């Protein structure tokens, strides 16, 4: 039932394109789902992709255009005549997908494209949607709604439904508005089917309806739909008028993107990149973090250099530098990951920063004591310097406590300052912990060596 | 419209519980969404939560039981009489949620609970679902389906719908089966409403239906629903008979869990934990990775110790140990994150391992050359030892190339060996890169110092 993309499939298709064998090339793709065709186009070069794309019927083409990745989409739109895009595809797209597509064009191209759309209502919807910020509920929503008035009967509704539903693929909810256009509730299709046709909507609709304002952030929208298990969420303006609806499939992407973004930030990858992106794109996303690490490393070198005399006297202190920095990094990354994920999934609850910090500190005590005791035992038996043994263990303990505190407090503070807390994960926190950890370690080492 | 949980709200509620003020306590929670009530119970102790829980009506209580976190759910079920759970709540739950709940009990308790369920059909559905592995399509699916036969008319369908739909909250699709119970297609409610009542289902249904086998993994299910923008996905047995359906809300959790799990693994957190989990739970999840880091640090110390004579002669070599290990770690984490995310979102495409590695290598060359040139310049001006300057830069370059290769190849190899590639991220790859990086660095250092 599902299509599996293989190297052979792509090679066959490329051969057909090469031979300009329209019939067979078309037969090879037309029965596939738009998402699979989008994957195929991703493996072709621009000319080949354009060839296949123009073989598709308008409906499939529109779906494929919505499914392909943004980079690929831009590549296509450049090589296709703008009139073709407007007439053949935009008309068959959901308004939110159309607005996403058009929003990526230059102002000039936007105007040209809009002028080619024949249906004035569609063009109007798209222009409306272009006003909203991409990362808000307004930017996510589509205009495809089935709206009924509370004063209608079920029979009027069913008639209206046939009219309104023509352009809509799937109806999840029917929204009920009052005479001012304000959203007052929903009506399930099930309820409509099971009610007598003479029933008044005002008597059978469900008044408890969750909605969001057009300005709500996409992450908040995702959290709400996830928490309340919603398939669609209506969007209202500041006086409660129904403006559009957001469907779960758009939100699933936000959820994955958000979770992936946090992981990428923690891994020192700055921009959203895919494993298939070009070397240049990947380098641009990765180099900045590496440079932070580099500067941090140079600072760390300076910290060690200030202890050069001590280190010449007792070179064994240098042995444990990697252990100290690695453990500082590991603890810091763990602590910050827990906070960042808690913030992302909105599961921090109402616990105060103080009690959260105390809990983290409790865990750090257990982990710190365990690790430094084990290290103490290992060094006690294998090292002939007791000063080294005690310095390294005490320092490890101190460094792990510091790293846990920094890893907890810094993301919480950033979050409070409305800065993305994921910034505090990855190279940034690792580098900070390296430098402070080394300072703690070498200071403690100098102290014990002068003592013993 | 949405409820915001505050410390004051919880304090007020606790006071009402303390005063045994049933009426007001009930009034304070009963208008809320089950998901919000679940959040509230999470902030109460077991006795308080039980008190509130028993005030809820059966429907809300069942929804709350499905919404609360697994730990909390177990805590509850322990203190509630098993007969109450069975009679009051299980009957009102979706079969998949009920099976999840019952699956968490001991065999003995399972039997006792099932014996209290009055509706034999419900009990049978739950027993069927208990057979499936939690991480498979069978474990995710529910039995709440609206099924119609291809030989029926729309009128028969509408009648059947009223009967079948009674227990089902929301209908997304109506599934069409043949006389053998095999899934042959779907029928949208929209289509049913818009067709004449005498139309035969066989003539109006949509035969293109995507389905999964009961044994399919939950991650694969999530990828399919995400890719094809599905709200519900039917599940079939090995001969194609319709067994159940999976809804998008269950899959959203799988997607978030999966993305979070990869991030947690990369951060050195072994079990799925929440920011609110107890110190013991968090320690159990974190300590194992820290111990790996500790052992790695001891190995690193040994690597440095073998170069002790060189280090005594030129202690400045020690200055750049943190820089080398940090950069090795950063590059390795970046490379492995890209691969692991590509695997998780199934976006690796059909590119071969070799060409992927070449691309990664290309990026590593650019990043490595940039970083080591900058370090060379910095040391050229600030260090008086040219041997140090050249050693550190050459070593940094070599280490970054090695880390990129290891970070790409190891997760790909694990994936091919059917081991979770996320294992290769985080402390494991950092530790490996630390040790190998140090070895490369100190060997190169020894070489240049003996040369110059």
Element layout with pairings:
The structure is a homodimer of 452-residue chains.
Chain A: H1 7-18, H2 22-29, H3 34-43, H4 46-55, H5 58-67, H6 70-79, H7 82-89, H8 95-103, H9 107-116, H10 120-130, H11 137-140, E1 147-149, H12 154-164, E2 174-177, E3 183-187, H13 189-194, H14 201-204, E4 212-213, H15 218-227, E5 232-236, E6 242-247, H16 248-266, H17 279-306, H18 308-313, H19 316-319, H20 321-344, H21 353-382, H22 386-416, H23 427-451
Parallel strand pairs in A: 1-2, 4-5
Antiparallel strand pairs in A: 2-3, 5-6
Helix pairs in contact in A: 3-4, 3-5, 7-9, 8-10, 15-16, 16-20, 17-23, 20-22, 20-23, 21-22, 22-23
Q: What's the shape of chain A?
A: elongated
CATH architecture of the largest domain in chain A: Orthogonal Bundle
Annotated CATH homologous superfamily of the largest domain in chain A = SLC41 divalent cation transporters, integral membrane domain
What number of structural domains do the residues of chain A give? 3
Pfam family, one (chains A, B): MgtE_N
Function (chains A, B): Acts as a magnesium transporter.
Subcellular location (chains A, B): Cell membrane; Membrane
Main location (chains A, B): membrane
Give your account of this protein's structure.
Two copies of one chain form a homodimer. Chain A is mainly α and about 450 residues long. Chain A has helices spanning about 5-20, 20-30, 35-45, 45-55, 60-65, 70-80, 80-90, 95-105, 105-115, 120-130, 135-140, 155-165, 190-195, 200-205, 220-225, 250-265, 280-305, 310-315, 315-320, 320-345, 355-380, 385-415, 425-450; strands at about 145-150, 175, 185, 210-215, 230-235, 240-245. The first copy, chain A, has three domains: about 5-135, MgtE N-terminal domain-like (MgtE N-terminal fold, Alpha Horseshoe); about 145-245, CBS-domain, CATH 3.10.580; about 280-450, SLC41 divalent cation transporters, integral membrane domain (Tetracycline Repressor, domain 2, Orthogonal Bundle), CATH 1.10.357. Chain A has 23 helices and six strands. In chain A, strand 4 (about 210-215), helix 15 (about 220-225) and strand 5 (about 230-235) form a beta-alpha-beta unit. The longest helix of chain A has about 30 residues, at about 385-415. The mean pLDDT of chain A is about 85. The interface between A and B is large, with 124 and 124 residues. Chains A, B: Belongs to the SLC41A transporter family. Chains A, B: It is a multi-pass membrane protein. Chains A, B: Its main location: membrane. Chains A, B: Homodimer.
